[in-house]
């Protein structure tokens, strides 16, 4: 029986896997690494990170999002970003790194990838600072300032990446950046090529030049029109790929250059009234249509969790069941 890591490599290299890769099983996420970008406040609470972005999680919702009213918006005018945006330090004490180092050192790297985590992404950071509407308008109205702001975010990411690499020596990177809605990308491929692609070529190129073998990028959205860019920037696995992308067709077109992780939309199966029967039907359809190579069945959720208790675990059990049925 192949290890989780070996089986993943068979899938992404077009080899002979002995089962489906089961969601996030191949990544040992080192979530203890210190960051100044908190994932989220607790439900019903509000926090401000060191970039000055305020996140609110209403108690009756399943997640948080930055606040962009006049009182809380961190960046009100893109032309004044140099005065308004100050990146936090990337340097932390040995004590702050201790838990992450201990976790990384405990991992059997023959079985799993020691995986660094980074969120939010470069595009997300621009609209976290100023709102989605302002960020999209600024790409058109103030392109020079947007280029400069993105370069500033990239320099922060590179500096942080160096610290992570030096401390935990990761084999893989799991990086978030949502690039679309369920139906379309937020910006055109042409605009993506101008603003976002060069930034990620620098960032992902740095990680890969410093020992990272595997880039896993999360975007739970439509982004089929950006797959050539994903390949060019060095992404090995697109995680979160939704059914609206026509994943079987993407595998036919790009399999061997990139692997697709998802095709089980969390919005369809991860809700209070979820059932194993519904999850089984969706996962079985994904596995039958997408096949055994260049595909990893997975909820589109951006971590190895679900919004409602039991959904992630049930999905993993069903993937194991389907491996027995289909291999």
From TrEMBL:
It comes from the Bacteria. Its EC number is 2.1.1.-. Gene3D superfamilies: 3.20.20.210. GO terms for biological process: methylation; porphyrin-containing compound biosynthetic process. CDD domains: CmuC_like. GO terms for molecular function: methyltransferase activity; uroporphyrinogen decarboxylase activity. Keywords: Methyltransferase, Transferase. Residues 121-307 form the Uroporphyrinogen decarboxylase (URO-D) domain. InterPro entries: Methanogen_methyltrans, UROD/MetE-like_sf, Uroporphyrinogen_deCOase. It is an enzyme of class 2 (transferase). This is Methyltransferase 1 MttB9. The gene is mttB9.
């Amino acid at each position: 029986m192949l290890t989780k890591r070996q089986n993943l490599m068979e899938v992404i290299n077009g080899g002979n896997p002995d089962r489906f890769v089961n969601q996030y099983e191949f990544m040992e996420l080192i979530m203890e690494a210190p960051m100044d970008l908190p994932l989220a406040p607790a439900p019903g609470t509000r926090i401000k990170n060191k970039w000055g972005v305020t996140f609110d999680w209403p108690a009756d919702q399943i997640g948080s999002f930055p606040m962009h009213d006049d009182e809380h918006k961190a960046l009100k005018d893109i032309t004044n970003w140099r005065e308004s945006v100050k990146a936090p330090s990337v340097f932390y004490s040995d004590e702050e790194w201790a838990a992450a180092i201990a976790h990384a050192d405990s991992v059997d790297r023959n079985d799993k990838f020691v995986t660094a985590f980074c969120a939010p992404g470069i595009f997300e950071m621009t609209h976290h600072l100023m709102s989605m509407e302002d960020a999209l308008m600024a790409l058109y109205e103030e392109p020079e300032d947007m280029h400069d702001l993105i370069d500033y975010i990239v320099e922060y990411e590179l500096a942080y990446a160096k610290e992570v690499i030096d401390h935990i020596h990761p084999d893989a990177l799991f990086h978030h950046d949502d690039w679309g809605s369920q139906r379309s990308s937020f910006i055109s491929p042409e605009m993506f090529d101008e603003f976002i692609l060069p930034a990620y070529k620098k960032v992902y190129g740095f990680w890969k030049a410093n020992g990272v073998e595997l880039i896993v990028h999360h975007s739970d959205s439509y982004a089929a029109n950006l797959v050539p860019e994903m390949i060019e920037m060095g992404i090995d696995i697109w995680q979160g790929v939704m059914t609206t992308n026509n994943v079987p067709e993407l595998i036919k077109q790009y399999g061997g250059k990139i692997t697709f992780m998802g095709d089980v939309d969390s919005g369809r199966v991860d809700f209070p009234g979820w059932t194993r029967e519904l999850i089984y039907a969706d996962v079985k359809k994904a596995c039958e249509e997408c096949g055994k190579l260049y595909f990893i069945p997975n909820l589109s959720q951006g971590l190895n969790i679900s919004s409602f208790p039991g959904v992630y675990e049930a999905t993993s059990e069903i993937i194991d069941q389907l491996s027995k049925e289909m291999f």
